[in-house]
Amino acid sequence: MRIAQGGGVPAEAQRAVPASGGVSLSRLDQLVILGVGFALQFNVMTSTFGLPFMRLSDILPFLTIPYFLLRPRILSPLLARALPIGVVVLLLAASLVAKADVQQGDLYLTLVLLLYFVQATQLVILLREPAGADSFAVGTLVGFAGSLLVLVAASAGIDLTAVGLAVPTSDLRPETILFMQDKLGGLWTAGNETGHVFALAGAAAAYLWYRTGRSAIYVAYFAGLLVSFPLTNNRAGLILPAIVLGLILRKSVSFYAVLSGAAAVCGLLMLYSATGYAPVPEQLQSAIEKRFVADSHAEDNILERLDSTVAGLELSLTNPFGLGNVSKENLIFVMAGVGTPHNAVVTLALQSGVLVALAFLVGTFRIVLSPQRYGPLMFYTVLFMTPSLAFEELSINQAFLFGIALVLAASATKFALDPKIRDI
Fold first, then answer.
1. CB-based burial label for 316 (10 Å; 0-12, 13-18, 19+)
2. How far is CA 106 from CA 109, 265, 396, in A?
3. Cβ partners under 8 Å of residue 83, min gap 6
4. pLDDT on residue 131
5. What confidence tens digit (pLDDT) does each residue in 215-256 have?
6. Helices (H) and strands (E) in the chain, counts
7. The dihedral of CA 31, 37, 42, 47: what is its sign?
């Protein structure tokens, strides 16, 4: 993957050459695409209002699928790839029918993934156009900013549950409520979820940097991510965004500026190690100490994750079409001492079937190995999703469910940019 040197933008991207067979996007099309990206980050709890949907993004397929089917030149590409699309639909439908030990609510997320997949098969056609990808990325970052404000409001003690901007705790166990208070989630259940959702927004920021050459877009996003860290205490969500920040600054900022920044960070670390004090806000210092310095559970946590992942793999092989969520948690707890496999791909296999998880892995490898075919937005999306999927059970999270659906759709529709657009 070759990125423009010095923070510049490839000539091909500047010209924004439409893909062959692409769809001309109206202002309304762009607004709808922007709304999808926005909703995935600012994902209101619509179940709070008595609606039969958990979150706002779960409603959107019912609105966007009919709308985009009426758009010219959408239906013909879908019909041309009807076989692979149909195979994924059948695999998801098979899980809905044949999932083992189903209890109330156990089919919901597989059904949502099916709806997201159908929606995504249309969107990947629209995302071939730079205007479509730009709209989705802008919507995602605006949603990220709104979700971050909700998180800050929650940290100030403002209760937003009644307006669907917080997860209700009335039916949760006391230990779960304490966990949510220790690691704030804002719109999401807890910091373990929020940190990864915010990390995924980095794909949009990286894409817009690529399109515009303005590193300030990504730096502003990363600053927002750092604001969230003392509240969520989620260190894993910082990993890839920090790596990409370093790569972007290396290309966009002078060598001496990068060296000066690195020296300043090293100086702060030396000061902290020598005195136990760093000139940063107290809450941030506490979070750094808790998650990076004084985490006595780190070694046990790694072994726990390995054991639970192995247990999840064993369960997925014995239940190839999936397993009800309550049974999954109970069985993994018996096998590994915790109720989650701590791995979203394994959870996807348990939730929607082994073949769906394999199809997702195939799509991921195709995009990673051929970024020039799938474009920067798809590539960055996969890049930012991958470490998060390895750390948390994120196939139950709508932002990541949509990302999984997008990868499946891109692979099934053989989504590729125009041959002229190759300099990614």
1. buried
2. 7, 47, 11
3. none
4. 95
5. 999 999 999 998 898 889 888 888 899 999 988 887 766 555
6. 19, 0
7. positive
